[in-house]
Design a protein that fits this description.
The protein is α+β, with helices and mostly antiparallel strands. The chain has helices at about 1-25, 30-35, 40, and strands at about 30, 45-60, 65-70, 75-80, 90-100, 100-105, 105-110, 110-120. It has a single domain, classed as OB fold (Dihydrolipoamide Acetyltransferase, E2P) (Beta Barrel), CATH 2.40.50. The protein is globular.
C-alpha cells in the first residue's frame, strides 16, 4: 500500500502542474473599455473579446482584412489574416494579441487586436 501512494504523488504533481500551465497560457477575457483604459497593461498580450461585429471590410488580393467588434463597453478593431471577415451583426469571440500603432501624448493610437482565433457565439 505504501508503494502505491508513493507512485501516485508524483503523477498527481505532474497532472496539477500541467493544469496550472495550461490555465496560465489561456487568453484572458477582457472588456474593450478596459483595453482602451489600460492599453499598456495588455500590450502584446493575448486577450479574448466577445461582442457583435459592427463593420467588416477586406480588399481582394490584400493579405489582411479588418473588422470591428463592440462588446457593449466599447468598440475595437481586429486585423485578420484568415482570408474572410465575419458578417456585420455576427456575435463572435475573438482571441488575439493587443497592439497599438503608436502612443502620442500618452494616448494610444490605432489600438487593435491581431486575430489568432475566432468563433461564432450564439
Amino acid at each position: 500500500m505504501h508503494t502505491e501512494l508513493t507512485m501516485t504523488k508524483p503523477i498527481l504533481a505532474v497532472v496539477l502542474a500541467a493544469g496550472l500551465l495550461v490555465a496560465g497560457c489561456a487568453a484572458r477575457q477582457v472588456r474593450v473599455a478596459e483595453l482602451k483604459d489600460q492599453p499598456t497593461r495588455y500590450n502584446d498580450k493575448t486577450v479574448r473579446v466577445t461582442g457583435m461585429v459592427t463593420n467588416s471590410f477586406g480588399i481582394p488580393l490584400v493579405p489582411f482584412q479588418l473588422y470591428n467588434v463592440d462588446d457593449g463597453s466599447g468598440e475595437i478593431s481586429v486585423v485578420s489574416r484568415s482570408g474572410n471577415t465575419p458578417a456585420r451583426g455576427t456575435r463572435i469571440e475573438v482571441k488575439g494579441k493587443l497592439s497599438e500603432v503608436a502612443v502620442l501624448g500618452g494616448r494610444s493610437i490605432g489600438l487593435h487586436i491581431t486575430e489568432e482565433d475566432r468563433r461564432v457565439v450564439n
